[in-house]
Specification:
With 384 residues, the chain is of the alpha/beta class. Helix content is 50%, strand content 11%. The protein has one domain: TIM Barrel (Alpha-Beta Barrel). The protein has a five-stranded parallel sheet with strand order 1-2-3-4-5, with helices on both faces. Strands 6-7-8-9 form a four-stranded parallel sheet. Helix 3 packs antiparallel against helix 6 and helix 16 runs antiparallel to helix 17. The radius of gyration is 20 Å and the shape is globular. Bound molecules: zinc ion. Keywords: Hydrolase, Metal-binding, Zinc.
């Protein structure tokens, strides 16, 4: 999922949209209810890194309830049971309404802290040890939260999450592409003049069709000149040419989604040869209809071509998923056992911009989990 408040790219306008506008409700109910999972416990206990997940898009009903109670006039239910209903999307327009109503609940720095720390708690509960959270400063600055106060709030939450939960958070600031150059200017200013300590990368979300990647080249050049990594969304709802644009114009070091890469063998070979990671979000792709069905998801083709793939959740509560579920989906699509799942988790560490000591620690924790799990399982078998 891209930056909001505009609709998802695949439904951003009637001209952009595939034959039918995405319908998260229908699409998510089309997913298997019980993702297979003999490996559920293994995945739940697996230390994980997540690289493609959005800040507001991670607001769970629990967090929204807290914000709604704080701002009762906003008309959003403050009761978690009612919110579960509120989060059941009847159509795409409803999804956008809900998303925007969540954005509108974030009115001051305290709300930003509540959202960010709440998201960190949810990550911690899933066994996530490191995450690069995509934040869209423009959405909040544009609504009147001063940039400095916003930065202070997310940094407070980041430091608290590391101290209390052992979760290492880093930021990706993304341009909401649909808001054009003014949004890009604000985002660049946030990423340079106001750069918080945890910022590692610069991104681009929003609709792809009609929002050419190359127009943001000056912003990416300037962000990269300060040492930020380039991680635009590309090829989610458009073809491989957008991914080429992201690589050639924006210096992309990872590709957000990159779903259409498999349509261009030269591109796929290029991504594989350079080991440019792909941030794959299977359930999101189905929910937004970037991909029609899980059976048609290109993940296996990406892996077969030798690409470095990572698995991510994008906007988890909005798509009724979480990172553990995405690992289960990927394990199913790729027919992985515990060793394969652990290798997938290590891909995310490799592809991350985490400090080297965090990478080493997380890799060792993944290995430990696998060793403990396989030896315990062997022990179980031996006693049977
Ligand atoms: Zn996204």
């Amino acid at each position: 999922m891209p930056a909001m408040p505009e609709p998802h790219p695949s439904a951003a306008s009637s001209t952009d949209a595939p034959a039918a506008a995405p319908n998260p409700a229908r699409a998510t109910t089309a997913l298997p209810d019980a993702v297979p999972h003999r490996y559920e416990a293994f995945v739940a206990g697996l230390p994980k890194a997540e690289l493609h997940v959005h800040h507001v898009g991670s607001a769970s009903p629990r967090i929204v309830a807290e914000l709604a109670a704080r701002h009762p006039k906003a008309g959003v239910p403050a009761d978690e049971a009612k919110l579960a209903e509120y989060f059941t999307f009847t159509d795409f327009a409803h999804f956008i309404t809900v998303y925007l109503s969540v954005v509108d609940l974030i009115r001051d720095a305290e709300d930003v802290r509540t959202l960010t720390y709440g998201v960190a708690e949810n990550m911690h509960a899933q066994g996530i040890r490191y995450a690069e959270l995509t934040v869209t400063p423009y959405s909040h600055i544009h609504r009147g939260i001063p940039g400095e106060a916003f930065m202070e709030a997310i940094e407070d939450a980041r430091l608290a999450a590391e101290r209390d939960l052992g979760l290492v958070l880093r930021w990706c600031f993304d341009i909401s592409g649909e808001s054009g150059i003014p949004a890009a200017d604000v985002t660049l200013d946030a990423a340079t003049r106001l750069a918080p300590a945890g910022l590692v990368s610069f991104g681009l979300g929003g609709p792809e069709i009609g929002v050419g990647r190359p127009q943001f080249k000056p912003h990416f050049d300037a962000a990269r000149a300060t040492g930020l990594h380039s991680v635009p969304h590309a090829g989610e709802t458009t073809g491989p040419e957008t991914i080429w644009d992201a690589l050639n114009s924006l210096g992309a070091e990872r590709i957000g989604h990159g779903t259409s890469a498999t349509r261009d063998p030269d591109l796929l070979a290029h991504l594989a040869e350079r080991q440019i990671p792909l941030e794959v979000c299977p359930t999101s792709n189905i929910a937004t209809r970037a991909v029609a069905t899980l059976a048609e998801h290109p993940l296996a083709d990406m892996v077969a071509a030798g690409c470095l793939v990572t698995v991510n959740s994008d906007d988890p509560p909005m798509f009724a998923t979480d990172l553990n579920r995405e690992y289960a989906v990927a394990a199913d699509l790729l027919d992985l056992d515990e060793h394969g799942i652990a290798a997938l988790a290590k891909n995310a560490v490799t592809a991350s911009f985490a400090p080297e000591d965090v990478k080493a620690r997380l890799t060792a924790e993944i290995d430990d989990h696998l060793t403990t799990w396989t030896s315990t399982s062997a022990g179980d078998r031996a006693t049977r």
